[in-house]
Amino acid sequence: MLSYQHEYHAGNFADVHKHLCLRVLFESLLKKEKPFCYVDCHAGAGIHDLASAQAQTTAEFAGGIGKLWRRFEATDLHSLSAYLAGVASLNNSGVLRHYPGSPELARQWLRPQDRALLLELHPQAQQALKKNFRSDTRISVHNRDCYEGLVALVPPPIRRGLVLLDPSYELKNEYRDLVALVVAAHKRWGNAIYAIWYPLLPAARHNELVKALANSGLHNILLSELLVKEIDESGGMYGSGMAIVNPPWQTDSALQTLLPVVANLLAPGRGAAQLRWLVQDGVANPTAKNPG
Ligand SMILES: C[S@@+](CC[C@H](N)C(=O)[O-])C[C@H]1O[C@@H](n2cnc3c(N)ncnc32)[C@H](O)[C@@H]1O
């Protein structure tokens, strides 16, 4: 049984990076009236209480959403203000108490014609997910392992869409298994966008995932990384990564505009945002290092 609980980490800098990438991808899908389907392979509980014992133990949110929360009115970056509005809508009292996970942000951004499929394995998170989303007829919750569930559920009847893969990497072979899962899903649903989150840790296991993606045969893969700390050899996460397969047009320029500003807000003078094509039009490691 996996023991990971996202409550310890909700709203940290990695969630901020992940959810901003998600917002940018949603914005591309929202440009057309045609419906789309969002698939969340590792949904978590959906809404997180930052006053819980778990969140208070680590207080990771203080270095993430805690730093951006007050910038709601100050930003002229559309994606950032849309994301912060999503957080604000759960905190009407003006005190930062609840943080929206990826399913809740998606719920806020879906239109009547759009659909979402949420997959979650952990019984506790699954129970919360059902409670939080059962009244929304656009959303279906699946208590299943995404390693069999994703391939079984795609392609959905609505053929435009986005898949988020956001595991806890408790199992070290996940860095490779995830790429095999994306390749299998892509064979069935080739035009979907796949967003794969990964941690940047001193052990650098994410290199396995990046290498496997580069050799996967997938044709367009953009990597976005947000760095907020010096590499700490004691093992802490120093950055957050997102690999985007089939990024919509102008995803690179949107991230290029947004993330350096966010890096500087999270870690003034130290933070950095990096963006590069891992594979572009079928060519691995193209020379254009700074898209956008
Ligand atoms: C990092 S959390 C997800 C956070 C969520 N995506 C968000 O942004 O708010 C990872 C979640 O994946 C779940 N999980 C882990 N392995 C899974 C699997 N094979 N299939 C489905 N869910 C899984 C865990 O129980 C945990 O709730």
How is this structure best described in words?
There is one protein chain. With 292 residues, this protein is α/β, with parallel strands linked by helices. It has a single domain, classed as Rossmann fold (3-Layer(aba) Sandwich), CATH 3.40.50. It is 36% helix and 20% strand. It contains ten helices and eleven strands. The strands form two sheets. It has a nine-stranded mixed sheet with strand order 5-4-1-6-7-9-8-10-11, sandwiched between helices. Strands 2-3 form a two-stranded antiparallel ribbon. α1 runs antiparallel to α10. The longest helix has 18 residues. The chain starts with 12 loop residues before the first helix and ends in an 8-residue tail after the last strand. Bound molecules: S-adenosylmethionine. S-adenosylmethionine (SAM) binds next to α1 and α7. S-adenosylmethionine binds next to α1 and α7.
